[in-house]
Amino acid sequence: MDRTNARNPYLSKANLRTLLEVGMVSTKLGLTSFGGPIAHLVYFQNEYIKKRKWMDERAYAELVALCQFLPGPSSSQVGMGIGIIRAGITGGAIAWLGFTLPSVIALLLFALLLQGFDIGNAGWVHGLKIVAVSIVAQGVYGMGKTLTPDRNRASIAIGTMVLTLLLPAALSQVMLIVFAALIGILLYRHKEAPAASELVIPVNKGVAAGCLILFLGLLAGLPLLNRLTDNPWLAIADSFYRSGALVFGGGHVVLPLLEKEVVPAGWISKQDFLAGYGAAQAVPGPLFTFATYLGAMIRGVWGAVLATIAIFLPAFLLIVGALPFWNRIRGSANMRGALTGVNAAVVGILLAALYNPIWTSAILSTEDFVLAVVLFGMLVFWKLPPWLIVIAGIVGGSLISYIQ
């Protein structure tokens, strides 16, 4: 990796070229990476690892493992991590911005359109809700096969689903994640851990520790400030920061957390919430940019900016804070066991979200169910791209609205 010496103008120019390269490549991925978090990791591997050789395959796999364990959008954190390893903290921020900005712009425009024309009850919007059913069902299907291949992990997933639906508080989901991690340690701590390769991380450990302290400080401090001031902007920052800080498993799993934050508060209706989630499937990049849409619906353009920064900030603080210490802890059998349990719990949380609020709000008739199954088949068995599923859902929803 390039080492930058501020007193050497040639090396400074080399560092600027590296940052520019990170920005260009991440923006390309932000414009073309359809398909959700798992697909994003494949795009990253092809572009960053196979094509550009920014790190080896084993180091990339270890980075993915770390981001799966940390709360937040796992694919975005992997992109941030690659940017940090390539060009320091600034490189991580640029990698995030390039990957995120295209979908932010698209969802902001969609939110403004939805507000300006009052189209929340349109048939094509209902079609987007049905698209959300098929997309999340695909996520459950794919993650279930990978993350719950045996009876123990399937039991963790089912138990998590049951308790998530019966105890629908945001705090209960966090407790279930912790409990699943403890079960994973007990059941899988003796699983053999392969030798870990060394990662070179250009982040000072003092800076890393400061980021972790800031992460915890904001997580504890924002709710207190919100109660003391009753400021609507602070309320948005608090809700979206907590959602980004307490979700494991990526974009689909943040759905129940966000729904509990914004719908009961009266910030947005459930139908507009699900319409936006369906629209988020049509754009490339991270699903966490769903927060952009929600922020825009709540407080316009500046609400979108605040919600987007607030939901991604925990992920950035955590990856900067964790990377310098990862070499020491990533070979631990206990850590791998905990990750195994958490991954199984994520499947259960996603399954609960599939039922409520997605299924209960979108599948209202036999025709809705038929369309959802067809879209699911197009995704899973016909392997059609998500943007085409969105178009099919819009057309199907419009037809259902017309014949009913």
Structural description of this entry:
With 404 residues, this protein is mainly α. The protein has one domain (105-403). The protein is 79% helix and 0% strand. It contains 15 helices and no strands. The protein has helices spanning 9-32, 37-51, 57-69, 74-117, 123-147, 151-166, 170-188, 205-229, 232-245, 254-262, 270-280, 290-329, 333-362, 366-380, 386-403. Residues 1-11 have low confidence and may be disordered.
Summary tags:
globular, disordered N terminus, 15 helices, 79% helix, mainly alpha, single chain, 404 residues
Helical residues, percent: over 70%
* Uncertain spans: 1-11
Mean pLDDT: 83
Q: Find the count of extended strands (DSSP E, 2+ residues).
A: 0
Protein name: Chromate transporter
Pfam family, one: Chromate_transp
Main location: membrane
Keywords: Cell membrane, Membrane, Transmembrane, Transmembrane helix
Secondary-structure map:
Blueprint: H1 9-32, H2 37-51, H3 57-69, H4 74-117, H5 123-147, H6 151-166, H7 170-188, H8 205-229, H9 232-245, H10 254-262, H11 270-280, H12 290-329, H13 333-362, H14 366-380, H15 386-403
Helix pairs in contact: 1-4, 2-4, 3-4, 4-11, 4-12, 5-11, 5-13, 5-14, 5-15, 6-7, 6-13, 7-13, 8-9, 8-12, 9-10, 9-12, 14-15
Short structural description:
The chain crosses the membrane at residues 94-117, 123-144, 156-187, 207-228, 240-258, 273-294, 301-326, 338-355. With 404 residues, this protein is an all-alpha fold.
